[in-house]
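Help needed: design a sequence for this.
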């Protein structure tokens, strides 16, 4: 009682722990915090304050009852105590959905060299197989504003064997990029967390910081095992973040995620038929960037693309078309020797200094002196708008012990350095999976009325738009889908940003001058495309087409 005997006002009475609650109690008295959705959105912040509230209430009662100097303020004091207890009651009532939500142990306080931001970040591990000791690493970023109202996006990079954290998060669509010297971060002005909450997953085990205590898991990765682990990850992650269970949910990715994402979506739909965890996924749509869908079509398109861009001779291209039966790739997985020789000749003609992922972009030259490299990067960044050495910078940054500590990463002290894409020495992925035809799986998603966007950067030689466009046309034909938007240009900032064609819920779009990693090389156009995908209704009675605004001249 002595510690409050001399109080003359609220601040003196309650002390430093309680004074910060004054504004919260005032707002509550005005009815602002009575909304359950508001309390839910405040999340774990209120959980931290619960213990303070207990002390505040005790302190307030002690002050009012035991201090004669406070008798004149008893009426206000006990009104304040009542309000504080009301807050506490609401906190306890929502504890399962809020305090049991976003885990404080995974909260990132601050990344080294990170600029100031107003949104929260989380990262850590989610166990997907207890018996094998297999756990997957994730990085989660809240939307910049109104995160409680924005959809949730899962992003997967491909490979197979490439990291969605190193790739998607820190070189493409996440909130930060390396600053150019690998000692800090800069803000990505076109981050997709402007319109959504972003979840990046390193999968399968052996990619990035994801691991298994069972060595055989690294030797037997397949599409099926990866899809099962990804599904288990989602189920367990939503238990960590229950406030997102009913949120609009989109599955997105690029490259070999053309396998990962449709296969995962298939499992999500199957789960929703019998939701054993007490909730159903609010899956809205799927977006695939430069996706591997049918190897026989996508592989053939590579050489057509090289020839059409003047990188190989007529002679070599004709030899490839004559000797290579790409339709056999799916049946045997083998390549006839004569065909293989001509394909090798094509790459010899192309030369070693072409970036296959963006044929118009300069290559990074890590062997030059550091001073020259920095100068080249500045010149390149000014002229092309992208940093061609960003992968090297990102890997250097993520290998720093202080960065890994901030990310709660590498807790098992892996015996190899962090790489964007795991080598075959670390992860062996079954080659037979490459030949799987994913079109039927995408067709199933369309039949479930999911929103589907397939987009292609037109500077990509690895999975060229030529093959992807053929795949989508074939899919539409097999499902007897009718065009709702004929092939036409779409626009960004009064410039042609690409071309598009829609079949109701299925949309194909190219992104002009974009690489295999579209958000990396054309960030503004990518954000415009993505924003339209997650916010605009598709073709349906009474609805609007995805590109209804984008295909009209501004």
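Sure. Designed sequence:
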């Amino acid at each position: 009682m002595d510690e409050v005997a001399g109080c003359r006002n609220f601040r003196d009475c309650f002390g430093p722990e309680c004074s910060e609650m004054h504004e919260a109690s005032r707002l509550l008295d005005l009815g602002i915090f009575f909304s359950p959705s508001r309390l839910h959105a405040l999340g774990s912040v209120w959980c931290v304050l619960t213990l303070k509230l207990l002390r505040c209430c005790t302190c307030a009662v002690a002050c009012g009852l035991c201090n004669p100097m406070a008798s004149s303020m008893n009426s206000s004091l006990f009104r304040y105590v009542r309000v504080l207890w009301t807050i506490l009651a609401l906190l306890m009532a929502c504890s399962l959905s809020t305090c049991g939500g976003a885990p404080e142990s995974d909260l990132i306080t601050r990344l080294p060299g990170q600029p100031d931001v107003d949104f929260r970040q989380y990262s850590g591990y989610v166990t997907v197989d207890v018996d094998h000791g297999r756990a997957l690493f994730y990085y989660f970023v809240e939307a910049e504003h109104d995160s409680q109202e924005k959809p949730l996006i899962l992003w997967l990079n491909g490979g197979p064997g490439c990291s969605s954290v190193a790739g998607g998060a820190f070189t493409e669509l996440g909130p930060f990029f390396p600053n150019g010297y690998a000692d800090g971060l800069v803000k990505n002005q076109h981050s997709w967390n402007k319109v959504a909450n972003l979840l990046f997953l390193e999968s399968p085990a052996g990619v990035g910081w994801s691991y298994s205590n069972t060595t055989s898991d690294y030797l037997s990765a397949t599409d099926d095992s990866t899809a099962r682990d990804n599904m288990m990850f989602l189920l367990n992650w939503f238990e960590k973040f229950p406030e997102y269970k009913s949120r609009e949910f989109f599955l997105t990715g690029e490259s070999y995620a053309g396998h990962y994402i449709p296969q995962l979506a298939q499992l999500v739909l199957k789960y929703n038929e019998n939701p054993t965890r007490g909730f159903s996924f609010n899956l809205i749509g799927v977006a695939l960037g430069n996706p591997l869908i049918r190897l026989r079509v996508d592989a053939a398109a590579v050489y057509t693309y090289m020839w059409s861009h003047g990188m190989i001779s007529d002679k070599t291209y004709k030899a490839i078309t004559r000797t290579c039966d790409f339709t056999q790739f799916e049946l045997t997985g083998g390549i006839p020797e004569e065909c293989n020789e001509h394909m090798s000749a094509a790459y010899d003609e192309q030369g070693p200094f072409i970036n296959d992922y963006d044929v118009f972009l300069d290559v990074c030259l890590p062997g030059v002196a550091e001073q020259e490299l920095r100068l080249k990067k500045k010149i390149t960044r000014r002229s092309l708008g992208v940093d061609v050495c960003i992968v090297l910078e990102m890997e250097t940054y993520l290998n720093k012990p202080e960065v890994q500590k901030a990310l709660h990463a590498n807790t098992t002290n892996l015996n190899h350095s962090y790489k964007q894409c795991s080598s075959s020495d670390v992860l062996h992925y079954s080659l037979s999976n490459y030949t799987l035809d994913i079109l039927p799986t995408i067709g199933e998603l369309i039949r479930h009325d999911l929103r589907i966007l397939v987009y292609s950067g037109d500077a990509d030689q690895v999975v060229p738009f030529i093959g992807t466009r053929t795949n989508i046309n074939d899919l539409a034909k097999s499902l007897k889908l009718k065009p709702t938007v004929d092939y036409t240009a779409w626009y960004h900032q009064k410039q042609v940003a690409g071309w598009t064609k829609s079949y109701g819920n299925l949309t194909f779009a190219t992104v002009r001058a974009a690489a295999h990693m579209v958000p990396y090389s054309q960030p503004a156009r990518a954000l415009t495309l993505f924003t339209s995908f997650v916010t605009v209704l598709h073709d349906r009675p009474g609805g609007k087409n995805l590109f209804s605004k984008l295909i009209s001249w501004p």
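The two ends are 70 Å apart (CA to CA).
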